[in-house]
């Protein structure tokens, strides 16, 4: 019969696609390995803090309703364009019809929502973000 050649096993990394865990080195006086504290802020603790939870609630309280409202407005426009041809082709003035005005309204509403969010974030979110960063020991980013 045919002799099927099997690949020769290499090292353990090739077989398991895993990197073995290496000890951090011996601790003081040859004791257990010493693990250093992670550098930087404790993001898990920050995320669990009441201040962060409040900030996230404020953010979601603004973004979710406005996103839903814009999506409903957009889908209304799409459905009207697909099924209400007579309404959408009704002339408003000159050659401008309802569809053109509603389409331009999509751009205007997008700009308005952007402006509203920037204003809201500047007044309600950014000061709280600055407080969280200060408590966590993070430096304020320049240019923001």
Automatic annotation (TrEMBL):
Presence of keyword Ubl conjugation: no
Transmembrane stretches, start-end: 62-84, 96-118
Cross-referenced SUPFAM superfamilies: MFS general substrate transporter
Region (Disordered): 1-40
Keywords recorded for this protein, A-Z: Membrane, Transmembrane, Transmembrane helix
Name under which the protein is recorded: Clumping factor B
Source organism per UniProt: Amycolatopsis rifamycinica
């Amino acid at each position: 019969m045919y002799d099927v050649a099997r690949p020769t096993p290499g090292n353990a990394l090739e077989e398991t696609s895993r990197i073995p865990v290496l000890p951090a080195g011996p601790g003081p006086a040859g004791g257990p390995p010493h693990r250093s504290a992670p550098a930087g802020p404790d993001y898990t603790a920050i995320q669990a803090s009441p201040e962060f939870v409040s900030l996230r609630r404020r953010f979601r309280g603004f973004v979710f309703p406005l996103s839903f409202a814009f999506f409903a407005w957009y889908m209304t426009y799409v459905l009207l364009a697909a099924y209400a041809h007579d309404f959408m082709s009704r002339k408003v003035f000159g050659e401008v019809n309802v569809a053109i005005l509603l389409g331009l309204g999509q751009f205007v509403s997008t700009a308005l929502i952007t402006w509203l969010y920037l204003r809201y974030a500047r007044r309600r979110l950014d000061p709280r973000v600055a407080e969280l960063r200060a408590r966590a020991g993070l430096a304020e980013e320049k240019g923001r």
